[in-house]
Amino acid sequence: MALIVYNTLTRKKEPFEPVTPGRVGIYLCGPTVYKPSHIGHAVGPIIFDAIKRYLVHCGYKVTWVVNITDVDDKLIVEAAKQNTTTMKLAEKVTRDYLAAMATLHVDGIDIMPKASEHIADIIAIIQRLVDRGAAYPSNGDVYFDVTKDADYGKLSNRRLDDQEGQRDLQSGEKRNPGDFALWKAAKHEEPEEVKFDSPWGKGRPGWHIECSAMAMRYLGETFDIHGGGLDLVFPHHENEVAQSESATDKPFAKYWLHNGLTRFNTKKVAKSDADPEMQAALVKMTLHNLLAVYPGELIRFFVLSTHYRRPIEYSEAEIESKRKGLDTFYRLFERVERLCGQTPYIDAPPPKASAGAEIQSRILLSAREQHAAAFTQSMDDDFNTAGAIAALFELATAINRFIEEQKLESGGGDAGKQDAHWATAHLVGLGRLIGLFLEPPSKRIAADDGVADKAMKVLIQVRQHLRKKKDFESADLIRNLLSEQKITLEDRPDGTLWRAE
Q1: Strand runs (DSSP E) across 245-295, as ranges?
Q2: How far apart are CA 500 and CA 491, in angstroms?
Q3: Are the C-beta atoms of 245 and 252 separated by less than 8 Å?
Q4: Closest CA to 192 of 307, 76, 107
Q5: Are strands 312-314 and 262-264 parallel, antiparallel or unpaired?
Q6: Which of 50, 258, 387, 455 could join 378 in a cystine, given CB atoms 3.0 to 4.6 angstroms apart?
């Protein structure tokens, strides 16, 4: 079927038809770099990285922009607390964020503009709004007049008076309670580095106008996809639509895609983010700390295992559950490598290559075609990565069944082994369409010149000796003690393998 996407603007699924045939522009709201990013800040980039990969596979030329908000009230406050400058703090947090993105294989971002480097673009749009009567200066501030936008609220389906209470400063006089700041007059106590010259005096831009300016700067006045978390629909994205379309008289983004929020499943529900327990939990869940414990591919797999519009339930138990699922694929890859003497990672063909031409077994070829079609069908239905991963599991099950039915581990034919290899290589190729299986999983225990492996082989031999003597209690004790240390033994016809989690 043709690709369809759910559009927040129309509240329904629609056929995906880019503004310019063959080309796709995507803008995703990036981080405000005042504190270390946590797992919730990785969700959007992982999802949209998978979306870009799939769109490229479908033949589109994609430009993906993710902004950095480095001019913001929260940044000013946090820099003062840390006795540093806003720019130094922003640079430090940005570096950590980019390092995390690399570990998560978020490789597809084409442009990462910073708000501080686009002040001229921002001022130009504000001036255009003032000239059109859609905005007005007030004591050094400049506000957007929401009453001048006839369809204000069309994205969020909210009323004008719901606009009150957002994060914009309100130092000047506003005509309407829902008017929001495009430009904020500088205060005497604020650092000079966040005071920019403008026709209305020194100050800095509001949050919403920053994204409009950067999106239009790199993608044009009308582009294809605007993404972000569900919490940004109002007021941030609503205000982006209002100010952008009032400035250009053109549609801003054709499709609005919003990912569900991350729910932190702590032992005790904190009353707010300021609650000490929640603060401690968020520190533990910063990307820096998480990626010191869990492989990047596991975090990516965890995120993509849920449809992007649904909330993600984060807990250590959920991560461990997904680890077991990911290990299903790793065990298959290791199994096939043992059988064939070559890793499926190297030979993974592009999924559009003559599908399964190398596979001779009609049973295995049929399974490959069936589950590859299910993968594509899921991705074509609003980028359903959870459904796509389910199709990968089904294909892995079919390959394992083939290996067992053909008794490939206790002999079997070379043709059957090659079929298993190529089917697994095709599975790897499909996974790469959403950024999985890009490289073999890293060893989780240091090689120590092979000492760890040699020690494990001795333990395995001792356990085998005990089993031959029918001392199953002692043999099971070895397995259980190793399991407590996150080391798994896997008994197979061709021997026992060990794996560190």
Answers
A1: 253-259, 262-264
A2: 15
A3: yes
A4: 76
A5: parallel
A6: 387
395, 396, 401, 404 alpha-carbon torsion, rounded to 10°: 150
How does strand 4-7 pair with strand 12-15?
antiparallel
424 lies in some domain: yes
Across 446-464, average pLDDT: 63
Strand partners, 428: none
- Structure tokens belonging to residue 9: 């603007």
Report the pLDDT value the prediction gives residue 453, as an integer from 0 to 100.
59
Residues 96-153 have pLDDT tens digits of: 999 999 999 999 999 999 999 999 999 999 999 999 999 999 999 999 999 999 999 9
Do 406 and 495 reside in the same domain of the chain?
no
Q: Is the pLDDT of residue 268 over 50?
A: no
Instruction: Give the chain's domain count.
Output: 3
What pLDDT does residue 207 have? 95
Q: Is the pTM of this model over 0.70?
A: yes
Characterize the bridge pairing of strands 223-229 and 203-205: unpaired
**And the tokens for 274?**
């300021």
Read off the amino acid at residue 70: D
In a domain, residue 200? The reply is yes
- 3-state DSSP call for residue 336? helix
Using DSSP bridges, classify how beta strands 253-259 and 223-229 pair: parallel, antiparallel or unpaired: parallel
Name the helix (H) or strand (E) containing 251: none
Residues 6 or more apart in contact with residue 330 via CB below 8 angstroms: 441, 499
Residue range 336-368, pLDDT digits in tens? 999 988 889 887 776 765 566 788 999 999 999
H helix runs in 341-471, sequence order: 344-347, 362-380, 385-405, 414-432, 451-468
Give Cβ neighbours of residue 161 (< 8 Å, ≥ 6 apart): 177, 178
Here the tokens at position 417 are 């082994």
User: Which residue, of 441, 461, 482, is where some domain finishes?
Assistant: 441
| Structural domain boundaries, residue 472 | 451-500
Q: What single string gives the DSSP state of each residue in 164-205?
A: TT-SS---S--SSTT-EEEEEEPPTTS-GGG-B--TT-SEEE
Are residues 73 and 197 both part of a single domain?
yes
| pLDDT value, residue 403 | 95
Q: Where is 497: in which H helix or E strand? A: strand 495-500
